[in-house]
Amino acid sequence: MQTRRFIVRHAVALFLCLFTAHYIAIPAGANERVRFPSLDGQMDINAYLFKPEGSGPFPAIVLLHGCGGALRNGMLSSFYSRWARDFTAQGFVSLVVDSAGSRGLGVTCGDVKKRLRMYRERPFDAYAALAYLQSLDVVIDGRIGLVGWSQGGGVVLLSIVSLSIARPSPPPVHDFAAAAAFYPALCNDRIQSRPFTEVEPQSWSTEIPLLVLQGAADNWTRPEPCLSFIEGAEQRGNPVSIILYDGAYHGFDAENVKIRSLPQFTTAQGVVPIVGTNAQARDAARVHLSEFLIRHLGPENQE
């Protein structure tokens, strides 16, 4: 079983050293706004491209935002730009996909119709982003990863499932080489498969390596159903794993967000979500994700 529980109060200094050691000395370039058509054929998608200096080619990461959207006051959120620059500093081209803003939806948390639309349409954005990156000379076709947060993490699960409705036909020569999801929505055995996928949850499968990074104290996307879902998929032979971070709430990997409740997004079950930074869990997760991405997309795997 690939499940790991990480107690964040232990060995933080060691993990910070390991995280720093993984970085490649490549300055992050300024982001560039780009557009490409979603594979659902309905609209063009805005995205923000970050490239390391040099001609490459480099491996790449597609970033999928949560229900809060990718933008703040019309600008790319510092949360996603910071993650993109972190990836770029490690030698990855990074592409932040603005699915909600491109559709004029903004924040989709708590809105059932908007949320369902995001789950139906965003997997097509993910594969459109893959095709866009594969069209760039600076990107290695077969070394592109997918990373999502919360709602975006749920979209990761819907995108990489073997019978994803968003995967082009014929399938791409090179699919995503790896995927990761922070506290993903839909990560449970009651996942609404249709119309999002063509399989039932208990037969969910993927050939794409997946890492889930989950706060053990998260009350918005609960860890228990996600743990059961991932362990079940692993027992069926899928290349999946999950790491739980004790004491960490939803959004634990934000830079400096005080722990607070969000009553405006109270769930149908009456749960008031709690969000906020857990610096130790955030730093450990950066290390775990870096190790995972380097293992599947790193220089030793370049073609």
List keywords for this structure.
single chain, about 300 residues, Rossmann fold, 9-stranded mixed β-sheet, two-stranded antiparallel sheet
Fold blueprint:
Blueprint: E1 4-6, H1 12-21, E2 32-37, E3 44-50, E4 58-64, E5 71-72, E6 75-76, H2 78-89, E7 93-98, H3 99-102, H4 112-134, E8 139-149, H5 151-160, E9 178-182, E10 210-215, H6 223-235, E11 240-245, E12 260-261, E13 274-275, H7 279-297
Parallel strand pairs: 1-11, 4-7, 4-8, 8-9, 9-10, 10-11
Antiparallel strand pairs: 2-3, 3-7, 5-6, 12-13
Helix pairs in contact: 1-7, 4-5
> What is the N-to-C succession of helices and strands?
EHEEEEEHEHHEHEEHEEEH
- Amount of beta strand: 15-25%
The biggest beta sheet is recorded as: 9 strands, mixed
Number of strands: 13
CATH topology: Rossmann fold
Which CATH architecture would you pick?
3-Layer(aba) Sandwich
Poorly predicted regions are 9-29
Residues in helix, %: 25-40%
| Count of spatially separate domains | 1
C-alpha-based Rg, rounded: 18 Å
Q: What top-tier CATH class fits best?
A: Alpha Beta
- Give the strand order, joined by hyphens, for the main sheet: 1-11-10-9-8-4-7-3-2
Shape: globular
Mean pLDDT: 87
Structural class: alpha/beta
N→C terminal distance = 31 Å
How many helices in DSSP terms? 7
CATH superfamily: Alpha/Beta hydrolase fold, catalytic domain
Please characterize this protein's 3D structure.
With 303 residues, the chain is an alpha/beta fold. The chain has a single domain (4-248, 278-301), classed as Rossmann fold (3-Layer(aba) Sandwich), CATH 3.40.50. The protein is 30% helix and 21% strand. The chain contains 7 helices and 13 strands. Strand 2 (32-37) and strand 3 form a beta hairpin. Helix 1 (12-21) packs parallel to helix 7. The radius of gyration is 18 Å and the shape is globular.
